[in-house]
Amino acid sequence: MLKLCAAVSLAAASVSAMAGNGDVVPGLLETDRIIVKYKDAAPAAKGLARAAAVTGDRKAKLDRAGQQFGMTVRESHIISTGAQVFKLNGKRGLKDVQDLAAEMMARDPNIEYAEPDRIMTHMATANDPMYTQQWHYTDATGGLRLPTAWDKSTGSGVVVAVIDTGFRPHADLSGQFLPGYDFITDTFMANDGNGRDSDASDPGDAIAVGECGNGQPTQARNSSWHGTHVAGTIAARTNNGAGVAGVAYNAKLVPVRVLGKCGGYTSDIADAITWSSGGSVSGAPANANKARVLNLSLGGAGACSATTQTAINGARSRGAVVVVAAGNDATNVANFNPANCAGVVTVAATGKTGGRASYSNYGTQVDVAAPGGDAGYGVLSTLNAGTKAPASDNYAYYQGTSMATPHVAGTAALMLAVKSTLTPDEIEAKLKSTARAFPASCSGCGAGIVDATAAVNAALSTSSGTVLAESEANNTMASADLVSVRGTTVNANLGSTTDTDYFRVDLPAGKTLVSVMTPGSSTADYDLFVYNSAGALMGKSENGLGAIETVNSANTGSATSTRYIRVVYYTGGTGATNGKYTLKLNW
Question: The whole model's pTM is what?
Fold first, then answer.
């Protein structure tokens, strides 16, 4: 079971010395479920996905595959992607279930994919009296630069889904929650006496020694109330003379419960992503409050699963931006999902100095960074005082990429409140292009630290930007088209399979160039590269057919630095009609 790890260290009165993966339960690389999707399943569109029928022949092949590994396979339920979840006879190592999945696919060519149902875990100028302790909003060096953004946006009219442990009612969150849903199917994990239901409240996720299997955890752990802490950062009531402030305090929250004791299953998280963004999930009522921002402060080791990627793609198609914690293992984010999935905004954590937090994951798949706390400074937000079961309201400092992520989700809500037509890609591009340069070492932390005020200003801009037409022949760095106005969109095409196009930007000091190339056809595959003035590769994006390619390149120096952006043909159409693409350049 692969735990999606909550990037958080816990502290009630002061920050714990345990930064990073202090609440990760090691050794839970096992699961008792497998996800199978057949090729004749109908994908989810406007209605429910239709799962394929498990005929006698198909079930026999699944059973024979299970026999190879001493496992029995029993049908459990259908999820929103059209895939089916099967229960195994007990927990098995993740590698064993991966081998079972491969055997299933080898025996039945009708299976589109089979994969373990891995387990994830959580990753943690106002008159509010504790506002002065929220350095992560106001600090000129390491903070979000939030207060001046409030002059222009407070998040009104925007719905944010907190896909997490659920919520506890809290005086400082009164009136902020809309109806949510509990998607946990396993009654042990749910810890509330049942499976899925419309009650998204958090009963607690405390665990005893060995309760998660394989002797883990080795030490008992109290309830985290993780979702309540995340919710407070996004939208705690502000200017109410009590407690703390929230980033987008006039936004509304839809709590979606997917994490309980020992974590939560990938299949449940996928359904939560679908439902919270306005998609249909069998057995769950329609979500009357479609979220435009999804906050996933959770993660775990491994590649992005087909199940998760399908759910993310669906959410994006419905206009939701998906914001995900990078994780807390101080290693490359390429090895952690859903932070390594396509189309998400992946968030690393910084400390008060503006440098990378000691625990934060990093790498080329990180998009931006935000305050998550480090050393003696944590992120202050709403919590519950109960050690196991719920008790009274309180507040606590947590550290982690789980805490950095809601800063970015809240900023996205501020942007949408002033311009509701922003697409997920536009939100991501503006977050990156307006992020400020790191004041301390933060290698692999993305475009910079999110700047809430600059991001809102970018969203408010009514200019559609300059539109240029490509001028042939721009096939070398020496003949590159010069783009001198930020926000320019270039209309271009690849005239032949050997054509390549170059564009030049003279990037000011402290700015990050965001290059976004969109092919004109779903059957075209063009790749994007960025070089410095010496021709050294600064970054590249080589996705598949019809995919948008994005490359960020920061100028961390004190003088203007030239960047060359290159578009390269891989496969698909060519010519003035079939070879079209657009290139958006912003900084």
Answer: 0.76
